[in-house]
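Ticket #4471: structure export looks truncated?
Reporter: QA, pipeline team
Priority: medium

Steps to reproduce: submit the single chain below to the structure queue and open the exported record.
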Amino acid sequence: MKAMRKTILTVCALLGMSALHAQTKAEADSAYAAEKYEQAIPIYEALLEKGEHADVYYNLGNCYYKTDRIAPAVLNYERAALLAPGNSDIRFNLELARSKTVDKITPQSEMFFITWYKNLVDMTGMDGWARIGVVAFVLACLLVLLYFLGNKVAWKKAGFFGALAMLAVAVLANVFAWTQHKELNERTGAVVMAGSVVVKSTPNESGTDLFVLHEGTRVEIIDDTMKDWKEIRLADGKVGWMPAKDMEVI
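Actual output as written to the record:
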């Protein structure tokens, strides 16, 4: 009886937390719809402290964008895109926010198949690829049965080649899901949050000034071993050191 009572209490607590989360998000969405962005921002941020959600990051980014705070807008759009890379609305608003930043950086050219691979991986999120992988594996099993049970040559050929194709899809889906899982857990992207920051040649103030970055610019952290300084790389290949306090990891 005690175990059953404990289980019931746990379930009730979880349901209560879920209802509270829904109610709080409803309040934030209501404030957002009424264009009360300053009221919606702290509610969305409180929700994100309990767990990451692409739609919450997206709405928070919209709130910051509507209040002309480009750096946090870019940061939250980037986080939303990391969780839901296939969402076209997130991508569009991210590019729109980036267009408002001061630094116009031209990315280094890359081989076409690398760009193609990245676009393919970002067609959907990690959960989406996992679902595709499961469905493809189930279809492969059914096609194997068709190969063994089919009483016509055409059916056996369809089962054999179809099973191979579905197995290939299942393997690729798992590879893509693993790639996105790695990106989520080993985040190297960051956004400049300071109005402007001088990037140095060495991790100290006495280093040579290399270039200046402004708020909202995305950088990649390539050396995270120091507490107060991070070595960063821009999309155009420039490398340097900047204070950790002037950036926020995506």
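Status: closed, not a bug. The export was complete when the record was re-opened. Leaving a note from the reviewer for reference: The beta strands are 189-192, 196-200, 209-214, 218-223, 229-233, 239-243, 247-249.
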